Amino acid sequence: MEKNKKIKSIAVLCSGGDSPGMNCAIRSVVRTAISEGLEVYGIKRGYSGLLEGAIEKMDASSVGNIMQRGGTILQTSRCKEFHDAGTRKEAANILRRKKIDALVVIGGNGSYNGAFALHSEQDIPVIGIPGTIDNDIAGTDYTIGFDTAVQTAVEAVDKIRDTAHSHARTFIVEVMGRKSPAIALHVGVCTGAENVVFPNKEVDYDEIISDIKRGAKRGKNSSIVVVAEGEVPGLAYKIQENLFDKHKLKSHVCILGHIQRGGRPSPIDRFISSRMGYEAVKGLIAGNYSSAAAYVKGEVELVPLKDCLGKKAEQRPQAYELVKTLSI
Ligand code: F6P
Predict the structure, then answer these.
(1) Could you check whether 9-145+265-308 and 146-261 share the same CATH topology?
(2) 107 contact partners, CB below 8 Å, separation of at least 6
(3) Pocket test for ligand 1, best of 132, 143, 178, 260 (most atoms within 8 A of CB)
(4) Domain extents for the chain?
(5) Which atom of ligand 1 is nearest to the CA of 132?
(6) Which atom of ligand 1 is nearest to the CA of 229?
(7) Contact 176 CB / ligand 1 (< 6 Å)
(8) CATH: 3.30.470.20, 1.10.530.10, 3.40.50.450, 3.40.50.2020. Which one for 9-145+265-308?
């Protein structure tokens, strides 16, 4: 889109896994757009809904009383068809026919890739808002929903610790994170776990056993091992089996699953997503046609979307070291 052509109408969608705080971001986008005199549309079910033309005009009341709700009022999807350039052309034509000048995409890595392609191939102005509980998007220190997901998981592990202590048991608690270690490591630090298993690090059974035994030696009678689910949920059961086969260690498994994706967003998630929605709309108006809202050193700012397409550089060593040092 030409730089001097003014944006008059925008649409917003959520894509990929939902995350607590997405509703606050939608509310912020809609109300900032209205304050700026723009028309604003909500697209249902992510890119799939865009292709189906599931697009509705929104007003200030469409986003009333949603801040405190988890999930997304627009719903979301993982749309495989959007990997195809022809499909993206179709999507751009739908936006043009509806006279929608720009698109706000709230989602994770896959959603950002789709948005970037839509801009580079079809010249549709796009702006991303990082929404995923995994906190794994490059270019931003934070993604919406992470704080709430960690809080949910920590509360659950605290409860598990109570029963683990009462029965002197070892629990293997599986948290979300198909490719991301972030939730597992944070939960590990915040719950005093003995060990954390996360993607791209081979499970070291000898180390897990020695960590558990070390605690037991000084009188600790319960242990927690936090496991990121990895590619296929249920990894915790495999670890349980191997710990028994290799070391005769009996353990219990608890898989937290999708409860981590739901629930009331924490104030941190509400605040950051409100700031991001606002900056996203202001950014589009100012002519940022391929950007993303990012949280950098405690501030929300706009960064080039292309800098956010990969996975975040990892902070594993520090967090893992912390778990190991503090659980002796
Ligand atoms: O959205 C991110 C995430 O929750 C990952 O942590 C998890 O591995 C994956 O999505 C699960 O996806 P789905 O809900 O599609 O099974």
Answers:
(1) yes
(2) 14, 15, 16, 46, 76, 128, 129, 130, 131, 132
(3) 178
(4) 9-145+265-308, 146-261
(5) 1
(6) 8
(7) yes
(8) 3.40.50.450
Is 182 touching ligand 1 by the criterion CB < 6 Å? no
Q: What confidence score (pLDDT) does residue 3 get?
A: 64
pTM of structure: 0.96
- What is the number of the ligand 1 atom nearest to the C-alpha of 233? 8
**How many Å apart are CA 235 and CA 183, to the nearest integer?**
15
- Beta-bridge mates of residue 196: 226
Whole-number pLDDT of residue 1:
73
pLDDT band at 314 (very low <50, low <70, confident <90, very high): low
State the distance from the centre of ligand 1 to the C-alpha of 108, rounded, in angstroms.
10
* Bridge partner residues of 302 (DSSP): 293
Q: CATH 3.40.50.460: does it fit domain 146-261?
A: yes
